[in-house]
Amino acid sequence: MRLLIVEDNVELSRLLASGLMAAGYESDIVNSVAEARDALRSVSYAAMILDLGLPDGDGLSVLSELRRKSDPLPVLVLTARNGLQDRVNGLRSGADDYLAKPFALEELVARLEAILRRPGQLLGSSLKLANLVYDTESKQVFVDGAPHVFSARETSVLEILLRRQGRVVPKKNVEDHIFGLSGEVASNAVEVYVSRLRKLLSEHNARVIIHTIRGVGYLMAEEK
What we know:
The chain is α/β, with parallel strands linked by helices. It has helices at about 10-20, 35-40, 60-70, 85-90, 105-115, 150-165, 170-180, 190-205, and strands spanning about 1-5, 25-30, 45-50, 55, 55-60, 75-80, 95-100, 125-130, 130-135, 140-145, 145-150, 170, 210-215, 215-220. The longest helix has 15 residues, at about 190-205. Strand 6, helix 4 (about 85-90) and strand 7 form a beta-alpha-beta unit.
């Protein structure tokens, strides 16, 4: 799932992209209104994170253009403008949510997931592949409708692979998703949890397979 980050603060945009990658999202970064327009014409994004104070104009102009074209792209406005009228203007221009700086990355990810769960968007409360279902709210795993208990870290691996099913997830992304900033991680930790997850999925007859792409990462797909 690819996002567009429109932010002229280079350090902040990189931190955002890194944090979102750990949460299972890929991001493209642009720094201006013009670059945002070009990117939106070229790529179909799942959502956009939009700063308003850009060097060549107001980010609201990008948002207004989208809504005039009836483009339903989910947009999370992220800005230092925190006055009541600023928030009202942003929402009336078509923003799905409005988050003021400074902010916590955890809250941004939660708000992003909330707007992507809305009807017609790409991220439901459940992630599905073949006969496997993962409920993102209860953190419950189901196979053929029957619930099964996985550990927190096995569930974490499952979630990031399901969010990007059919695509390779780099090993470092899986590691960051599991461990975050918890400190030093054993070199084989990811392999251990992926192996445990494979075993559990097989035991419960889930019709999915986790491919190891040697030297790169992992890919989850339906078992043929």
